[in-house]
Design a protein that fits this description.
The complex is a heterotrimer. Chain A has two domains: 171 residues, Rossmann fold (3-Layer(aba) Sandwich); 131 residues, Rossmann fold (3-Layer(aba) Sandwich), CATH 3.40.50. Helices cover 36% and strands 17% of the residues of chain A. In chain A, strands 2-1-3-4-6-5-10 form a seven-stranded mixed sheet, with helices on both faces. In chain A, strands 7-9-8-11-12 form a five-stranded mixed sheet, sandwiched between helices. In chain A, helix 7 links the parallel strand 8 and strand 9. Chain A is globular, with a radius of gyration of 20 Å. Chain B is of the alpha/beta class. In chain B, helix 7 links the parallel strand 2 and strand 3. In chain B, helix 2 packs across helix 3, helix 2 packs across helix 13 and helix 3 runs parallel beside helix 10. The longest helix of chain B is centred in the N-terminal third of the chain and has 26 residues. In chain C, the strands form four sheets. Chain C has a six-stranded mixed sheet with strand order 9-16-15-14-10-13, with helices on one face. Chain C starts with a strand and ends with a helix. The longest helix of chain C is centred in the middle third of the chain and has 23 residues. In chain C, a hairpin with a 2-residue loop joins strand 11 and strand 12. In chain C, helix 6 packs across helix 7 and helix 6 crosses helix 8. In chain C, 29% of the residues lie in helices and 25% in strands. Chain C has three domains: 95 residues, OB fold (Dihydrolipoamide Acetyltransferase, E2P) (Beta Barrel), CATH 2.40.50.100; 48 residues, Dihydrolipoamide Transferase; 178 residues, Chloramphenicol Acetyltransferase. The chains are: A alpha/beta, B alpha/beta, C alpha+beta. Chains A and B meet through helix 3 and helix 4 of A and helix 6 and helix 7 of B.
Chain lengths: 332, 333, 343
């Protein structure tokens, strides 16, 4: 077995191609997903391989696109929608939150919506406030949506294949900065899946538990490496699926480390990561805490443009390092 | 459509067709009366939107469809659901919050769907069903099912972005779809005169390259005839049609509507254009049925509704125990 | 006209339960057409006209204008040519459509253990708190070194129980226990009164001292010494205020404040440890109404201050009947209450 180091864009494309080959009802639709290959090149060449009918270019009409995907999903297809930037899901929110999410429940289970909505999110590209948000809490707060936030190519592939298999609507949030970066781990060949709703313990340590999402998993990894040299050992947990959320590994880890640091890129106020804190506070593992829970998240501001401002708006490796060191040092 | 042409080889000139049209219009009328009564007695939770006066539009449209053809419906959707062939007991039971209701009490009046009859569901959001119908038509085209999808919506929905986006997608992809506008003159209290700067809503079709036609929404024969043409066009791959059916709701938008925005004279004028007696006299005149036969059909509809209500009232109330498990569909092994 | 149709008070909004009949637009015998207005009603939200569901004749009117009618109850009866959908299932079946209430699960909260109650007033990390409860450690005895003076696990694990402190706690407990034990053998009587709670501790001490001084026949010492029971980390501390009625009010007030603060940390000046002729125990700060009376050896009286209401306190006086008559208690308490009330 070769050790293939793919980028996340390549891994996602591979997953889509596997699904296209396995299921004739899978198709991709979105703005410029065809000959252009998608705004971030994720569907590059798929147009040539599968043709214009299955790699369907759409007009710029997010509500119509998602609505069409919902209707197609209700009628036997398995659409993958690409929305060019997650920020534009605001245009399509009726179809996402009022239609796709609720149809199975409110129609008494008569119908279901097997669709995946893939969309890039996150800051770091200088695209400013309307092209850089992390909107996990929008989707995570709507019952009926599954929400996946992959942090690396191997996970992205396995999670996307599971998302396409899933009979429910799945929002698949891809961080733009991860598209071109190869992961730390090889991407397995073939039709492999990673189940939704299973958190991954990325590494294990005894002094601190870090729960991080998306790109923050990668930043936290760097901190784990650095502090490990200083004798601080850290457990790093990547929930991968934020709806449904698997907290069990977090509880088990905190029972051992007694310290919890949570990290997300999106704004702190009412952010997804607060759910991790809330569930911890209400759990039996609360009594294992030997330190207050620490949260690192984006500032409560729109993402600014200038590079130094943009950097200041969201947690950086140094911020995580400082926070991790302080918790371990101050709370013994 | 004159009585003459009914006899002269028109599709609805068979007694079976006439009977179907009359029976379904009566079913819708009696269903809505029953709903109003049940609501008035406080037996129904929430709210309701009645389509009394509009029965000819869904009846005529759905008579041109097969079971495989799909529809999306609106908040004022009881008529579409019945016309497409839904079970009356399961509908009433849903309104009364019963386990045997179409949605197990989770959806209510605005969310009834029926897979068996190709009904993708009523929709609480104005215009919400239009892109979904486009998607269903897209699936039909991709899967070569040969079916057509119809989106029912009101005049109000024509000003929603969803209409414009879906109409454009249907047009550029030549989807087997019918955009069926029931123009009942008011989006809640806003008249079409206030909400549109065009006189004829069908003019909107031109902007998307979609052929559009006006029909008398209170004439089931006219609706059926145009529906048939649109279905044939869709099924032969020529793309969508916009049908604008001129009709009128006798009742308020919902129960708490005082009709402050329209006159008694206007309501009276439209009551005179009641689609049911209009069609009844037409078929009697054409010799397709006798008055006694027509009365018997009305009675049949009434009896069916009474039976549905009596059965529903006795049914088991929906159980909250299963709520959490109802959010996601379980993956089939 | 072969069908009787009851026109009911309609439900017109999601929240409506009753409606008031304002006026009838028809009278018995009137011929009406479908859509004609029959009557007007007023609800919490709107006024509305109710119209005829079909053509027909008014048969009877069942209510007077002004009547408040439940939804679903008939307002008038009309006779119609065609059957109008109408259902009447009686109350029993209406009950059946009521949404079942989700059974309320009674949440039972286990009473906290003694150690947890004790540890409530200190700041500690959750693990230290649960461990302390498990080990039976009083967290107040542990020095906090964590941020914001929070007790960390490190603090708990490294806390040495100070033998001197343990000895003092033990001695203090023994003192109180001995007092109680001896009080039991004394023939005693207790009296209580409710007073306004707007007096300061210093006022009470001073007033009580002067009341006692006014009855030299009761005093077995030449001076009056008022002991005040204060909770400290070493257990109960009993600083004694000697002849407090000889001090100016402001001075006594300052002395009571500084002594109380010091006593909480177990620091009572040596000179204040002896010479008590009476004891005051204020249990009102624990929201207690009263407690077991205490009569220490050689003290003829003791006072317990209990919580009454938001604006009142209970003062209980216990006297040793070997030294005074039964009614003396009543007189003393009356004099005390008069003195602090006058103040």
């Amino acid at each position: 077995m070769s050790e293939r180091m793919l980028t996340m864009a390549e891994a996602i494309r591979e997953a889509m191609c596997i699904a296209f080959d396995e299921r004739p009802e899978v198709f991709l639709l979105g703005e410029d997903v065809g000959i252009y290959g998608g705004a971030f090149g994720v569907s590059a060449d798929m147009y040539h391989r599968y043709g214009a009918e299955r790699v369907l270019d759409t007009p710029i009409a997010e509500l119509g696109i998602v609505g069409a995907a919902v209707g197609a999903a209700l009628s036997g297809m398995r659409p993958i929608v690409e929305i060019q930037f997650s920020d534009f899901t605001a245009q399509a929110m009726d179809q996402i939150a009022n239609q796709a999410a609720k149809i199975h429940f409110m129609l008494g289970g008569a119908l279901h919506v097997p669709m995946v909505l893939r969309t890039p999110q996150g800051s770091g590209t200088g695209a400013a406030a309307q092209h850089s948000q992390n909107l996990e809490p929008w989707f995570a707060s709507v019952p009926g949506l599954k929400v996946v936030v992959p942090s690396n190519p191997a996970d992205a592939k396995g999670l996307l294949l599971s998302s396409i298999d899933d009979p429910n609507p799945v929002i698949f949030l891809e961080h733009k900065l991860l598209y071109k970066i190869p992961g730390r781990e090889p991407v397995p060949e073939g039709s492999t899946r990673i189940p939704l709703g299973v958190s991954k313990v990325v590494r294990e340590g005894k002094d601190l538990t870090i729960v991080a999402t998306g790109i923050m998993v990668n930043k936290a990894w760097e901190v784990c490496e650095k502090l490990s040299a200083e004798g601080i050992s850290i457990t790093l947990i990547d929930p991968r699926t934020i709806s449904p959320l698997d907290m069990q590994p977090v509880f088990e880890s905190v029972d051992k480390t007694g310290r919890l640091l949570v990290v997300q890129e999106g704004p702190a106020h009412a952010g997804f990561i607060n759910e991790v804190i809330a569930q911890m506070a209400g759990s039996a593992s609360f009594g294992s805490l030997i330190a207050p829970i620490k949260r690192l998240a984006g500032m409560n501001i729109p993402i600014p443009y200038a590079p130094q401002l943009e950097k200041a708006a969201v947690p950086q490796i140094e911020d995580i390092e400082i926070a991790a060191r302080e918790i371990v040092k101050n709370w013994r | 459509m004159s009585a003459q042409s009914l006899i002269m080889g028109h599709p609805m000139s068979s007694p079976a067709h006439a009977r179907h049209a009359l029976l379904y219009m009566w079913r819708i009328r009696k269903f809505e009366e029953a709903v109003e009564d049940l609501f008035g007695r406080g037996m129904m939770h929430g709210t309701m939107h009645l389509s009394i006066g509009q029965e000819a539009s869904p009846t005529g449209m759905c008579m041109a469809l097969t079971l495989q053809d799909q529809i999306t419906s609106t908040h004022r959707g009881h008529g579409h659901c019945i016309a497409k062939g839904a079970d009356l007991t399961r509908m009433i039971a849903e309104l009364l919050g019963k386990e045997i209701g179409y949605c197990g009490g989770r959806g209510g009046s605005m969310h009834i769907a029926d897979v068996e009859t190709g009904n993708l569901g009523a929709n609480g959001v104005v215009g919400g069903g239009i892109p979904i119908a486009a998607g269903a038509a897209l699936a039909s085209k991709m899967m070569k099912k040969g079916s057509v999808s119809v989106s029912f919506f009101g005049d109000g929905a024509m000003n929603e972005g969803a209409f414009h986006e879906a109409a454009n997608l249907a047009a550029i992809w030549k989807l087997p779809m019918i955009l069926f506008c029931e123009n009942n003159k008011y989006g809640m209290s806003s008249s079409t005169e206030k909400a549109f700067a065009i006189d004829n809503l069908a003019d909107r079709g031109k902007g998307y390259g979609i052929p559009a036609v006006n029909v008398d929404g209170n004439d089931v024969v006219d609706v059926y005839e145009q529906a048939k043409i649109a279905v044939e066009r869709a099924k032969s791959g020529e793309g969508p049609t916009l049908i604008v059916a001129e009709t009128y709701r006798w009742k308020g938008h919902s129960r708490s509507d005082k009709n402050l925005y329209r006159t008694k004279e206007e309501i009276e004028e439209w009551r005179e254009r009641d689609p049911i007696p209009k069609f009844t006299s037409k078929i009697i005149e054409a010799g397709l049925m006798t008055k006694e036969q027509c009365d018997a059909i009305a009675q049949e509809a009434t009896d069916a509704i009474i039976a549905a209500v009596n059965e529903s009232v006795k049914a088991k109330p929906a159980d909250p125990a299963g709520l959490l498990d109802a959010v996601f569909k379980k993956a089939s092994a | 006209m072969s069908f009787k149709y009851p026109v009911v008070m309609p439900k017109m909004s999601m929240t409506m339960e009753t409606g008031e009949l304002i006026i009838f637009h028809v009278k018995v015998g009137d011929h009406v057409k479908s859509g004609d207005v029959l009557f007007e009603v007023m609800t919490d939200k709107i006024d509305m006209e109710v119209d005829a569901p079909a053509d027909g004749v008014i048969d009877s009117l069942l209510a007077e204008p002004g009547a408040v009618i439940e939804i679903g109850k008939p307002v008038l009866i009309m006779l119609t040519d065609t059957e109008v959908m109408a259902f009447d299932f009686g109350n029993e079946e209406v009950e059946a459509v009521q949404v079942e209430q989700i059974e309320q699960v009674e949440v039972k909260i286990a009473p906290p253990t003694a150690a947890v109650i004790l540890n409530e007033s200190v700041k500690a990390v959750p693990k230290a708190r649960s461990e302390a409860a498990k080990r039976g450690v009083d967290l107040r005895t542990i020095a906090a070194t964590g941020p914001d003076k929070t007790i960390t696990m490190h603090d708990l694990n490294n806390a040495q129980v100070d033998p001197a402190m343990a000895a003092r706690q033990k001695a203090n407990r023994a003192l109180i226990a001995k007092g109680i034990e001896m009080s039991r053998g004394i023939a005693q009587a207790s009296f209580s009164r409710t007073v306004n709670s707007d007096f300061e501790t210093a006022t009470l001490i001073r007033a009580w001292a002067s009341v006692l001084r006014s009855r030299p026949d009761l005093a077995i010492h030449t001076h009056v010494g008022v002991a005040l029971i204060i909770e400290s980390k070493y257990g109960s501390a009993l600083p004694v205020f000697k002849d407090p009625d000889h001090l100016a009010h402001e001075d006594l007030k300052a002395l009571v404040a500084s002594t109380s603060e010091a006593a909480k940390n177990g620091k009572v000046p040596l000179a204040m440890l002896t010479g008590a002729t009476t004891t005051i125990f204020d249990v009102s700060r624990y929201s207690m109404n009263s407690s077991t009376p205490l009569l220490f050896p050689n003290q003829v009286t003791s006072l317990t201050i209990g919580y009454g209401t938001e604006s009142e306190k209970n003062i209980s006086l216990t006297i040793d009947l070997n030294f005074c008559d039964f009614y003396d208690g009543a007189l003393l308490l009356d004099a005390l209450v008069a003195s602090i009330t006058k103040h």
